[in-house]
Every structure is written in C-alpha cells, then in structure tokens.
Amino acid sequence: MSSKLSAYNIFLHVALVALATLTLVLAAENRALKKPTPTPANGPDLGQSVGELAWSPLDTPETTTQLADAGKESLLFIFTTDCAACQATQPVWKTLHQTMGDSVNVIGISLSDADPTRTYRNTHSLPFPVGLPADTAAFMESFAVTGVPLTVRVGANGRVVGTWSGTLSEGQRSEIAATIG
C-alpha cells in the first residue's frame, strides 16, 4: 500500500509543478498581451523633404507643384470621398483656407477616383484646388499615408513641419492658422 501511496504522491507533486509552470507561462503571455502595440505613424516624418507634388488637379492636365516655394507654405488635405471623418473635417479645412487666403498653398488630394472626387468637391463646395496624385501608390508611400483624413503642413523650404491625422478639432485649426506665416 505504501508503494501505491508513494506513486500517488509523486504524481501529485509532478502535476503541481506542471500547473505552477503553466501558470507562470500564462502570466508572462498575459503581460505581453497587455502591453500596447505601437501603431504606425500616419503621415510623413517631421523634417522630411517633400519638395515636389506630382498630381492631376480636377479638370486640368497633370502637373507638378513645387512645395518648396520660397516664402510660401503649403497645406495638403489628403482624403477619400467615402470617409466620414474626411467629411467631418471639410468645414475645418474650408475655414483654414478662408483664414489664410493666398498666404499658403492649399491643396486637396483625393485618393478616390476622379468622378467621385469631382462630385465630392462640388457637393462640399471646396474652395481650394482638388485633385488626384499622379501615382497613388507612390504618393501614399512618399507621404507615409496609412489613413485618412490626413493634414500635412509643408514649410516654404519643402520640408514637413506638421501632420495631423484624423478629424481636425477647432483647437488644431487655430494652432495651424496661428503658426503659418
């Protein structure tokens, strides 16, 4: 009987050690899962040079716009026509354009097709030039676009001085308007 009891005790000890080990492994995995996963930044890096924009303004031939324009900054509004956050941001973009007038190049870049973009521009009465990138994939890579809406501020030297991802708040609009010039 004592050999049966001894085997039973050994089995219980082995099972207890296995359960303790499994508990430690699961606790470590749980801690790893709770750590926030960094999300990729949306938009170009601050200081990145983006001196040239190859795009097709709606209703005009493809062109290249020099964003490195001595004395004049640029604001790029990158959007799609089916994005609710983009639609919510349109009034802020319009206000920025009206506030700054011609002191800054304001350009809307749609990642959608031309016909829906044309309809969108007309429906929202966008007062600034709107167009499509000449090569959407290259544009998205160059400007590190991972989501829309995206607002990119380019200094007169052609370098990125600010990016705002998502719907712009009134505070962000004021910040952008106050720092341009």
Question: Overview of this structure, please?
Answer:
This protein has 181 residues and is of the alpha/beta class. Helix content is 43%, strand content 22%. It contains five helices and seven strands; from the N terminus they run αβββαβαβαββα. α2 (84-100) packs parallel to α5. The N and C termini lie far apart (93 Å).
Search tags:
181 residues; elongated; alpha/beta; 7 strands
Number of strands: 7
Mean pLDDT: 87
Low-confidence region ranges: none
Structural class: alpha/beta
Which sheet architecture does the biggest sheet show? 7 strands, mixed
Question: Rounded to an integer, what's the Rg over CA atoms?
Answer: 27 Å
Oligomer: single chain
In angstroms, what separates the terminal alpha carbons? 93 Å
Could you state the order of secondary-structure elements as H and E?
A: HEEEHEHEHEEH
Q: In which order are the strands of the major sheet placed? A: 2-1-5-4-3-6-7
Tell me what portion of residues adopts beta-strand conformation. Answer: 15-25%
Q: What is the helix fraction of residues, given as a range?
A: 40-55%
Global morphology: elongated
Count of separate DSSP helical elements: 5
